[in-house]
Design goal:
The complex is a heterodimer of chains A (241) and B (108). With 241 residues, chain A is an all-alpha fold. Chain A contains 14 helices and no strands. Chain A is globular, with a radius of gyration of 21 Å. In chain A, helix 1 runs antiparallel to helix 9, helix 5 packs parallel to helix 7 and helix 7 packs parallel to helix 9. Helix content of chain A is 73%, strand content 0%. With 108 residues, chain B is mostly helical. Helices cover 77% and strands 4% of the residues of chain B. In chain B, strand 1 and strand 2 form a beta hairpin. In chain B, helix 4 packs antiparallel against helix 5. Classes of the chains: A mainly alpha (241), B mainly alpha (108).
């Protein structure tokens, strides 16, 4: 029995690695377009390359590159605002990052949307940690390789929307959220948050709509936590507690 | 201030702010003494943020609501496959291929 479990675990790990490589490949192509756009906008080759290494957060990097010439302060503050969501991400999946201080300091740099979503999708803590690191490392490598290649190729890189990559990322994240969304309070919170974010996007600066979406968590509180009826029936003592 | 200095300041300023948010969440997680009820909300909050990211990625573009069809339909195809427990790779590839083909066919 032990060996079957081990074999199952190995199969799941292979699947995990395959998934990490798939999302990593897609991130690499986006990195390619980031490098190309940065250089086309007049930045020297080293700038997007350095940025991808030390910032490692796609959305904020695109924003910073767009603003760096016109308003450097807006580039920094706007980018930081876009990345504020990483704090609640860390609170939620920090346990999957590592036990030692060193692992936590290093792993924090790999805390991105995709590594968070992969970690959240795993129930078992050990698997959650493997998922976090596998996806974080895979995307760190492809994102940076893609950036270098894009900066070198420049205008030869086309728009990634042509390959439908703008649909690939939301679909991938949604697939990872599917298990959590089966829980009713979580589903209500997510739907409310999604609606808030879309509706406030025309009104608020980039990054803020996603943060105010946190108000959607209130919807989870409106749903009474379903009491496991069978357990209550089997254990009448619970009623008195 | 030279352009090079400005660019370096922007890059390292953004990097420092981003890392501060990341490491704060990860390190605070254990220091923060939260009642069980609030702790239980943390994964819900993260899922809500990710759902908001998905929704804005699908339905908005450069600060406004986007009315294109190719991307939402692509994501919908991916979502249905994910719902039917298709492998992750298939979900991602099918979403991208659907959006790309619809664009090829001339849809916005």
């Amino acid at each position: 029995m032990g060996s079957t479990e081990r074999a199952d675990g190995a199969v799941r790990d292979t699947a995990l690695l395959r998934d990490a490589l798939a999302i990593g490949a897609a991130a690499g192509v986006i990195g390619l377009s980031f490098g190309a756009i940065a250089v086309a906008g007049g930045l020297p080759l080293w700038a997007p390359v350095l940025m991808s290494l030390v910032v490692f957060a796609g959305g904020s990097q695109f924003l910073a590159v767009a603003f760096v010439a016109a308003s450097p302060v807006a580039a920094v503050l706007g980018g930081i605002l876009v990345n504020a969501r990483h704090l609640p991400f860390g609170l939620a999946v920090g346990g999957s990052v590592g036990d030692t201080l060193g692992a936590r300091l290093l792993g924090s740099h790999l805390l991105i949307d995709e590594s968070t979503a992969f970690a959240l999708a795993q129930r078992d803590p050990a698997r959650s940690r493997r998922a976090f690191w596998a996806v974080g490392i895979a995307i760190f490598l492809t994102w940076n390789i893609g950036t270098v290649a894009g900066a070198l190729l420049g205008g030869a890189v086309g728009d990634p929307a042509v390959y439908g990559l703008d649909a690939a990322f939301p679909a991938g994240l949604l697939a990872l959220l599917m298990a959590s969304l089966k829980d009713r309070p979580t589903r209500y919170a997510a739907l409310a948050g999604a609606a808030i974010a879309v509706l406030t996007t025309p009104l608020l600066p980039a990054g803020l709509p996603v943060l105010v979406a946190l108000a959607g968590v209130g919807a989870a509180l409106l749903v009474p936590t379903p009491r496991p009826r069978t357990a209550a029936a089997a254990d009448p003592e619970r009623e008195t507690v | 201030m030279s352009t090079t200095t400005t660019t370096l300041l922007v890059i390292f300023g953004l990097a420092a702010g981003t890392y501060a948010f990341r490491v704060a969440g990860v390190l605070l997680r254990d220091r923060l003494v939260l009642p069980e009820r609030l702790r239980h909300l943390l994964p819900i909050a993260a899922t809500t943020l990710l759902a908001a990211l998905v929704a804005t990625a699908v339905f908005t573009e450069s600060g406004r609501v986007a009315l294109g069809l190719a991307r939402p339909v692509g994501v919908l195809v991916g979502a249905v496959l994910a719902w039917r427990r298709a492998p992750f790779v298939l979900v991602v590839v099918a979403a991208a291929a659907t959006a790309a083909l619809l664009r090829l066919a001339g849809l916005p």
